Design the sequence.
């Protein structure tokens, strides 16, 4: 019995050592905070992946945007304007009014009028800043105990993921958060009040909800992160998840009938100039433009979370305590180590390891939907690490065993030859299997390259887009030398203006294609943000591409020229090949761009190298943009096509349409190349002033 048990333990010795060792190291790293940013990043993606929540009709937000500041003519707005704002809201008979605006000092005229209104509005809540450098509340509202805390708690990466329910100041005075106080006022009118469930553990009941505070040993949080009464913030959404109305509409009393009746009304700034904006999980979008979230929207989310939990039983988001997290990591480390130990005996064990990793993500996401945030990155890391170490251990153990067998069988020549033959047969099978894997990998890589090539073609400007430009004829052409090229051009019309871009990434292949796609996305994103200054435009674009190239550990970079056209004027910036202008009378102008910019992605700071020139286009003038795949194309005798030949053929055919000029240039280039191999991507853009 003991021998059998000892043999069993010997078989699983590697798993019994590796699994807890890996789990222990990852737990130590987790406790040290090494994985917090990655766990938070997964948390943010879970928030974004959820189905959109319905609009919360119980809460209305009065937004203060840039146009509203212009309307009241100064900021802070006068006490008279604020009194009119509150009076118009009060006429709608809301249950609670939360003013997310600091008002510790009078702003004449109208201060006395505002004070009297404060005294006659018992459901009006003002704010004060409790933490950090305090900001006092309105004195009148403080006397009436109608004050809440405006403080928001930030994680180490600067994002708001926690609700501050209650916070105390240095004098020991506790304030409820603005979202909390207004929500409790709303629920009180429905007969729902806070109930003490466990005073020692600070567990409270509110309708269908039970509140468990963060104690500093949950998820990735520690004692040092805690202060006041905090819970995880289960967001409903951004501003569009709440009915909202502008300050100007309220001041002019253009409030839809019944919009605010029996609702919580929040008043707060959304204007970027007032700097009441915060990072939240919604600023972690992988696709689309991410925007900061106004503080008033976060307070509305906190109030909505409390109302939904108390009335409808919507889950309050909680995190596992750290011992449970440790068991979770140990469990997956053990599963992965067990599967890794069967790598040679059970080929499906590798698939099982991948299934384990996928299961962690799926289970974590489903738990998140049910109101539990459990770690995903740490157990994933334990699965990968345990699998690699265990498989390596098994292979090493198998190698040692084989070596001992060789020594044993070396006693006779016949036995040694037989063993060698068996090993060669096994090796031949493994080589055959590896060859099959290499073939499959080749097919996969070719498929990836084909997909990238198709993606490049998909984002090129469509003919309908080019024809929509009223003042220009535009014709473009791009052909990669290999399956995936590094050339890039784009045409982006907007409000009567057109941005034309052309670039050339160093080298070819998948990396060059990916860098080309990143550049197109960055240019379009910056175009959408209305940045018109070429220095700022190219500086932001360069830093974006530079940091992505660094992350890729690549040595790629690209030349890039940006042309902005509007009403016959063409602005050129950025370093690329020459820009060719063929005037209607046949005069040729060659614009050298060497002093207009710097290669993109080569250095982090290029703003000092960027400048632009202005060109006036008249009717019939032709502009030609190209990459060096045209001018450096060689014939069978290694003679290059050259920029002079390009200029001449455009000049000879300048009276034709842009599409005809493009076609004649490409045909002439192909005649020059003949049967010679094409070594570089070919890109040509022809613009003609109508």
Sequence:
């Amino acid at each position: 019995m003991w021998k059998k048990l000892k043999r069993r333990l010997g078989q699983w010795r590697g798993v019994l050592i590796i699994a807890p060792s890996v789990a222990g190291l990852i737990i130590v790293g987790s406790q040290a905070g090494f994985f917090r940013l990655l766990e938070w990043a997964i948390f943010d993606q879970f928030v974004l992946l959820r189905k959109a929540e319905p609009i919360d009709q119980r809460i209305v937000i009065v937004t203060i945007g840039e146009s509203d500041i212009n309307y009241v003519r100064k900021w802070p707005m006068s006490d008279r304007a604020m009194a009119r704002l509150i009076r118009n809201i009060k006429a709608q008979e809301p249950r609670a009014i939360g003013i997310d605006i600091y008002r510790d000092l009078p702003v004449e005229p109208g201060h006395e009028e505002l004070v009297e209104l404060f005294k006659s509005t018992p459901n009006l809540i003002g704010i004060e800043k409790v933490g950090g450098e305090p900001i006092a509340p309105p004195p009148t509202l403080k006397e009436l105990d109608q004050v809440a805390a405006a403080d928001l708690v930030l994680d180490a990466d600067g994002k708001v993921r926690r609700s501050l329910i209650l916070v105390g100041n240095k004098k020991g005075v506790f304030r409820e958060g603005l979202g909390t106080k207004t929500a409790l006022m709303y629920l009180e009118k429905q007969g729902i009040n806070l109930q003490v469930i466990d005073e020692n553990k600070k567990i409270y009941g509110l309708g269908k909800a039970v509140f468990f505070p963060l104690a500093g040993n949950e998820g990735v949080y520690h004692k040092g992160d805690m202060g006041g009464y905090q819970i995880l913030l289960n967001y409903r959404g951004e501003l569009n998840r709440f009915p909202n109305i502008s300050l100007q509409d309220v001041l002019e009393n253009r409030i839809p009938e019944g919009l605010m009746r029996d609702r919580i009304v929040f008043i707060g700034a959304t204007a970027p100039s007032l700097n009441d904006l915060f990072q939240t999980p919604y600023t972690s979008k992988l696709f689309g433009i991410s925007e900061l979230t106004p503080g008033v929207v976060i307070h509305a989310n906190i109030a909505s979370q409390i109302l939904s939990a108390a009335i409808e039983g919507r889950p309050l988001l909680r995190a596992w305590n750290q011992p449970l997290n440790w068991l979770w990591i140990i469990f997956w480390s053990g599963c992965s180590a067990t599967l890794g130990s069967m790598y040679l005996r059970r080929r499906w064990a590798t698939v099982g390891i991948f299934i384990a990793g996928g299961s962690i993500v799926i289970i974590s996401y489903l738990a998140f939907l049910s109101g539990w945030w459990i770690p995903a990155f740490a157990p994933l890391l334990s699965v990968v690490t345990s699998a690699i170490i265990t498989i390596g251990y098994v292979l090493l153990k198998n190698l040692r065993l084989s070596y001992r067998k060789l020594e044993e069988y070396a006693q006779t020549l016949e036995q040694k030859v037989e063993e060698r033959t068996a090993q060669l047969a096994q090796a031949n099978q493994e080589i055959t299997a590896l060859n099959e894997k290499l073939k499959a990998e080749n097919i996969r890589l070719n498929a990836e390259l084909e997909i990238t090539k198709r993606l490049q073609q998909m984002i090129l400007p469509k003919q309908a887009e080019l024809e929509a430009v009223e003042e220009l004829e535009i014709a473009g052409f791009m052909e990669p030398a290999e399956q995936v090229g590094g050339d890039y051009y784009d045409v982006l019309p907007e409000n009567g203006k057109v941005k034309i871009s052309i670039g050339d990434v160093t080298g070819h292949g998948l990396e060059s294609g990916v860098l080309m796609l990143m550049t197109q996305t960055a240019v379009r994103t910056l175009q959408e943000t209305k940045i018109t200054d070429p220095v700022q435009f190219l500086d932001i674009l360069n830093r974006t591409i530079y940091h992505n190239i660094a992350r890729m550990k690549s040595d790629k970079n690209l030349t890039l020229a940006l042309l902005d056209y509007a009403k016959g004027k063409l602005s050129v910036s950025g370093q690329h090949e020459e820009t060719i202008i063929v005037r209607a009378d046949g005069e040729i102008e060659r614009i050298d761009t060497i002093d207009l910019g710097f290669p993109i992605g080569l250095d982090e700071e290029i703003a000092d190298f960027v400048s632009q020139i202005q060109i006036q286009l008249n009717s019939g003038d032709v502009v030609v943009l190209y990459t060096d795949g045209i001018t450096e194309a060689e014939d069978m005798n290694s003679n290059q096509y050259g920029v002079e030949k390009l200029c001449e053929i455009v000049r000879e055919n300048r009276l034709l349409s842009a599409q005809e000029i493009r076609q004649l240039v490409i045909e002439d280039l192909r005649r020059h190349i003949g049967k010679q191999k094409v070594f570089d991507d070919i890109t040509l853009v022809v613009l003609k002033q109508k």
User: Anything to note?
Assistant: The radius of gyration is 34 Å. The longest strand covers residues 497-505.
